[in-house]
Amino acid sequence: MEDIRPSLPENTPPYCNGNREKSRKLLNLFGCHLGDPYCSQTAVPGASPQLASIFSSYGLLKSAAGSPTPVFTQPDFLLLYCLCETSVFKILVGIASLRHVIRHVDQHTRTELCLPQYALRPGAVSQEKTPFSLLSADHDPFLTCTPDLAYPLTSPARHALLKLDPLLKNSMQWLNLKRGDLLIIDNRRSTHTCVPFTPFFRQDSPYLTHMFVNKPDPARH
């Protein structure tokens, strides 16, 4: 399968060099599981065997009435790679999940930006001897908050969202993103459907690169 992984930013500041390499290794772990869901909007049906193969793994692409945003059956994982030079992005997560956030391995270089519920630790080896390790909040397996919203700090959409739902302001927090950070969101326990409905999730976004991925198969590694 053709390599469809995004190119990682060049001319990265020295403090991000380690991040770029670790992010590249993490992306390599998923290999051909990566794909760009937005390609389907302009692709001719049947014209791309690669695209057909990708979407056969995700499930059906559903079109919601009255909404221009395509809705996908929920993937197992969502990868977000931050292209920002500074921490102008944050991910919205439920504060209930923050109890289970796994802290950064390196606070200075932000080697590992971890998520509630799960995180993929660079270089970790699980008990099954696979080259990745999923860390989970096993004592609270039914967390439903999913970090599926992202806005710039100055976005009017953020303020409108908080104004629309006062409870949201009290129940959500914003996590910083910096250039070179790779987020891996595990949706397998979530009751939410992770839909990239903002332009900042677009594949050509200067701020953020996103990819849907299938659950890695340990037998392949």
Topology:
Layout: H1 17-30, H2 49-58, E1 61-63, E2 70-72, E3 77-82, E4 89-94, E5 118-120, E6 134-136, E7 149-152, H3 156-164, H4 166-171, E8 172-177, E9 182-186, E10 208-213
Antiparallel strand pairs: 1-2, 3-9, 3-10, 4-7, 4-8, 5-6
Looking at this protein, list some descriptive labels.
221 residues, alpha+beta, 4 helices, 10 strands, disordered N terminus, disordered C terminus
How would you characterize this protein structure?
It is a single chain. The protein has 221 residues and is α+β, with helices and mostly antiparallel strands. It has one domain (20-220). Helix content is 18%, strand content 20%. It has four helices and ten strands; from the N terminus they run H-H-E-E-E-E-E-E-E-H-H-E-E-E. It has helices at residues 17-30, 49-58, 156-164, 166-171, and strands at residues 61-63, 70-72, 77-82, 89-94, 118-120, 134-136, 149-152, 172-177, 182-186, 208-213. The strands form four sheets. Strands 9-3-10 form a three-stranded antiparallel beta sheet, covered by helices on one side. A three-stranded antiparallel beta sheet has the order 7-4-8. A two-stranded antiparallel sheet has the order 1-2. A hairpin with a 6-residue loop joins strand 1 and strand 2 (70-72). The two termini are 17 Å apart. Mean pLDDT is 37; it is low at 1-19, 25-76, 86-175 and 186-221.
